[in-house]
Structure prediction request, 394 residues.
Amino acid sequence: MKVIFLCQRVPYPPDRGDRITTWHFLQHLLDRGARVRLGCFTEEDRDNEGVTFLQARCETVVAPRLDRRVRKLVSLRGLLTGEALTVPFFRHRELQNAVHGWLTDDPPDLIYVYSSSMAQYALGDCPGKRVMQFAELDSDKWRQYAAASGFPGRWIYAREARRLLAFEDRVAREFDLSLVVSEVEKQLFMELIPGVEPQVLPNGVDVAHFSTGGDAERHPRTAVFTGVMDYEPNVDGVCWFADECWPVLRERFPDAELLVVGSKPIAKVQALASRPGITVTGRVPETPPYFDRAAVGIAPLRLARGVQNKVLEALSMALPVVASPQASQGLGDDVPPGAVTVADGKDATIAGVAELFADPELAQKRGHAAADWVRRTWRWETMYERLDAMLAKL
Prediction:
């Protein structure tokens, strides 16, 4: 099978949400024997290592440099053209020319696109079947930003939500298959893009990598939050927790600790390290050792939705999780009792974490039930089987 695979970031190493998803599905296509031509963007020098790794596995890799400061200026063209600003942000002549050549010189059997902004390279009359993995509708992310912002951000974000939804609508109607990450996302999709029914393809978790080394190193009153710390939903969530919940928890449990683990912490996140009991790590080689130091995972996200990798990884590491409704609603109805405490707002979040801090045996019991469940339900191999069945129908 000849495949063109398009995604925003170099899909290796799998060290952040979108890279985790794109790497695993790309790897699965390669393992099936597909000839893959990969189009993506590099953003920093360390991405070149990922490109080299992928060049040894893919037939071709085209990965021009994306300078986000420059692209923000370029994206303002959308104000003149009426486009969503996200579309010109990810438009690049080198990648356009490469994809055009792939389509005309050696037409693919399959065009697999992750993130709607990359679909612009495969619109119009294209050979092969086209799969659009939306995961979540990006337009709804901008709608959430608008609701949480003041002027002028509210106007800009609301405009982006409208224009990007119109673009997503076009993509969904042109492509042969649209994929979303959860049943909740599917219902929203069908409300906003009527007449197109997407299929659900959740994220998975690498249960071999995210496997606890045991409870010996756990501190019974340590919470952990993981994620890329320049991503606005992560920044908003952990700063809200530190402002609204942590002082109360720290007063009740003077030895309580909060580990904020993830790359690229912006100044606002770095400043949290000056508060009692909070550690901000920055980039770490791997996150499992930090999970194994904690008693509970937290995901107090207010600007996100769908299946969160940070939640799956914590559960796989035998940690119970206290999560907002937004961060937990993609998990389904068969979650073991207590594995995920859904906490809406300050008081519920404090109560959920405090219960686990106060009873280490309960926390460990719930955590191990969570790990058993994740290994049965959320391993990547299950998601590969779903994808194979969907591709077979095409």
About this structure: The chain has a mean pLDDT of 95. The two ends are 13 Å apart (CA to CA). The chain has two domains: 2-204+380-393, 222-377.
